[in-house]
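Quick entry, no commentary yet.
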Amino acid sequence: MRPRPCSILSLDVGRRRIGLAGCDALGISVTPLAALRRGRFDADLVVLQAHCCERSVQGLVVGLPLDAAGQPTAQAEHCQRYGLRLAAALDLPLAWVNEHSSTWAAGEQFGLKGDRSGRLDSAAAALLLEQWLAEGPELKPAQQTASRSGAGAGDGGS
């Protein structure tokens, strides 16, 4: 089911960088943004708050790297913790999207294989956002998604 369009910040959370992408309030155009080099959470939060204010963000889409069987990986658990903490700090609802193979797909689609500048991470975040706009799930408050690891992220994958 397609979610209600709104201004979204999509995150492809990695250990070194966070790929970022946003969409307009109507969900028509998806734009990769400059990737964020990971630092302390408080420093990341300042940058992400600025993006949210500048873009009037109403929700977050966070990629969960599930395995081929749709099960959470160790990195998925890290992404979920980060996404929940960020959503709570920003007081924004969020949705999870299965990001299985999204980086590979972004590398193929945009000719960015092997990129280490962050462009590949943000291209993957853009694919996650396009997937969310097409398939959902609806955004939910962080506390409603906390107990359901991978909820809504098992379908599809990019």
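second:
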Amino acid sequence: MKAKRLPERAMTELVEKGKLKRADILVTRSKGSLLGWLIRFGTKSYWNHAAMVYVIRNPELGYDSTFIIESGGAGIDIHNIGHYFGHPKKYDVGIKRLEKEWFHNDREDGGLRFRRRVRGFALEEIDDKYNHRLIVGIARKILRQVILAAIFPWLRRKETSQRRARMPGIARRLNVNAYICSGFVQWAYYRGVGKVQEETGDTDDQKRQEVIFNPEIGQDDSEEVLLSTSPADLANSDKLTWKYIVKNGVVWEISRQEDVDSVLKQD
């Protein structure tokens, strides 16, 4: 399907018309942000932040809007999605979705359970260790990533395996792909799906493989590796399907990467 421009603003098209789902992934571009620019420069990506849909608008249950959960330097926050949709001069937003049948279906013992567990895990499993020790450590690594991207810009043009093999000694001792926001999303997906499998006795390892969006993750699924996922990893993952782009306040329904690229090039 080619990109389709929708007539209404994002809050109407996506929130009021109920087009979003729990655990949808948001990637965002912060306009006028120096840190955002540095992250985009360091990862050669249009995007610099990520979040996840937490609660869907449901007036009958008292939810008049959709809320997202995201991680930042201050810890874990839940915000009205209007924080992004309502400020087109400050943010562009992309929405991606895991559309594997086992995750996407609306059965109580199927997709609904997985999606609820992923977004619930993001909140329930947060403790002081994550909020403080990991956040501080990863924040330091973000600064190192930015510095290395500025000092060694040629690294951005290398494939991951080549880049790591040829890094100077000081660079090899640093994790140059450490992020807070997008790593939090990857961590919640991987751990949340794994938790459901443990609870149900599901031994299908393919499900966990299908929620690995960071190409760096192999046999090592430690917190540090999961949390090293970048916004670019989420945006580039072909395991996630593009659904919508909100650019300069205009909403596009979209599915193909070439159309995403075309929309993002527009002024």
